[in-house]
Give the backbone structure.
Amino acid sequence: MSDREKLSGQTLNCPEKPERTIVLMSNEIMVRTATPNDAAQCARIMFDAFENIATTHGFPIEPQTREFCDFHMASALATDGTFALVAVRDDDIIGSAFADERGAVVGIGPVTVDPVAQDAGGVGRLLMQGLLDRERDRQAAGVRLVQTAYNYRSFSLYAKLGFEVREPLSVFNGTVPRSANPSQTVRPATGVDLNECNALCRRVHGYDRSDELAAWTGLGMAQVVESSGRITGYATGLGYGWHAVGESNADIIALLQSAEMYLGLGFLVPSRNTELMQWCLNSGLRIVQQSTLMTIGDYPAPQGAWLPSIVY
């Protein structure tokens, strides 16, 4: 049975995280559950892996700095709802893979392998198989990831594992075109807004991302769009690590226009959304790279406007 068959059509009924430690062995490589003590090694490998592939292809390094990788790995391994695996050879970590399990749909990433070990026994495949086995056991509704389009190696791996291409994505960045529409109000999200935002996300995607939204709202990052006295869009933030949902492109544009800056490499736009793509290009924003949204399991076609995060 393929991984897609294992996950497709299942509804969410996720128990608490399995307590067992995942261990896989292949060619003297062990895959085990990550711990906070692994953060420094995972961060070093994350930057080295992205730097190696980006430099080879002449693209910007996605995590941008080693300091960001240090922060990201320490934060991820301390976040409830994040699960991670590491691959170990001769007591040295040579790769890691993360899963955001805070919602019905699981987001995978980052998945990174030390450049010096990328030909050593299918490290990336072992890590991905470990995560897919876990999400099958958890009966996750689906698994999603965003793959960097020029990385043919990772694309081939995910395709072999059963992931389907759902959306080509364009990463935009540049000077923020600040403006405001008098019929719309953009303001910080509060706890009172969460139910309405989650209902909007379910209308657009079929699922909500309630725990993720609550976390960013609590940190003061999330924004909402109000039109005619009701919420018609929200963003957990604007940049590589955040997502946005709107009833229409006008809601997404209002959020983009409200931002002081776009964080990280930029924000991801579904490339088939011609209207939004044209607005970005006509506003002077530039495409810095292409990515691909890939999924296993349930994927209702979005019914509205949206921006994915680097996870999904």
About this structure: The chain has two domains: 3-162, 172-307. The CA atoms of residues 191 and 217 lie 7 Å apart.
